[in-house]
Amino acid sequence: MKNKNWIKFVSVLCALPLCLSGCGSKQEESEALLDAFLDNAVPAYYNDDERVLMFEQLPMYEEDWAAYSVGERIDLDNDGEREQIMEGPYGGLYLDARDQKVYVFAEGEGTAGVLSYTEYEDAVWIVHRDTTHMGRQMYWLTRYNGEGEIEDEFQLSAEYWDSQNGQYYEKSDFTFRDKKISMEEYEALKTEIIGSRGSF
After folding, report:
1. Of all helices (H) and strands (E), which one includes residue 125?
2. Which of 103, 79, 85, 70 is nearest to 27 (CA)?
3. Distance in angstroms (rounded) separating the CA atoms of residues 187 and 97
4. Which of 8, 88, 106, 146 has the highest local Cβ count within 10 Å?
């Protein structure tokens, strides 16, 4: 870390405990931590608390397919506080501020796990999807509780390995919450759960 960033890092770390103990609401504290990450003043931790990510490590060159950019802030884990979206490869990554740290709580996992989110049953769900490979459409949905913990998760999928034209049909294998469903049920659920987001 460069000297000026190290000075900024130390100064923010010294100030954060004072701020987080009484400078505003929990939402304001969360926003301050996310701002500090974007200022390259504090790291984002992965859930194992061992790996860390600094803002300056993210490639930001627009001509690079793997470039990141700062996206919007919305509540992605249903705790009433906004999380930071970093737009990037395979859907980018989502940052959550909790317990006086910033965490990477979701990220794109390649073409078989592209990251996005949706609203379903009055909650926000994190979605990983695999819809670019032949023979399958797979959606894994996860609902978080604000503490980095999973409250619910399920899969919605269509598998059609024997299709002659690369499309599913009535006899394909459709699944929702570990139960077999019909093509009509699959299409209705897909529209209800994720149909409003065009990138799906």
Report:
1. strand 123-130
2. 79
3. 36
4. 106
Element (H, E) at 175: strand 173-176
SS3 call for 164:
coil
Q: What is the pLDDT of residues 12-66, one digit of tens each?
A: 444 454 444 455 788 899 999 999 999 999 999 998 778 999 999 999 887 788 8
Which burial class, exposed, middle or buried, applies to 79 when counting CB atoms under 10 A from its CB (0-12, 13-18, 19+)? middle
CA distance linking residue 145 with residue 75, whole number of Å = 11
How far is C-alpha 10 from the chain's CA centre? 28
- Which alpha helices (DSSP H) does the chain contain, by range? 3-20, 26-38, 183-194
Query: What pTM did the predictor assign?
Result: 0.84
DSSP calls for 48-85: TSS-EE-GGGS---TTSTT--EEEEEE-SSSSSSPEEE
The values of phi and psi at residue 27, to 5°, are -65, -40
Q: Is residue 16 within 8 Å of 24, Cβ to Cβ?
A: no
User: What are the backbone dihedrals phi and psi of residue 154, each rounded to the nearest 5 degrees, phi first?
Assistant: -160, 170
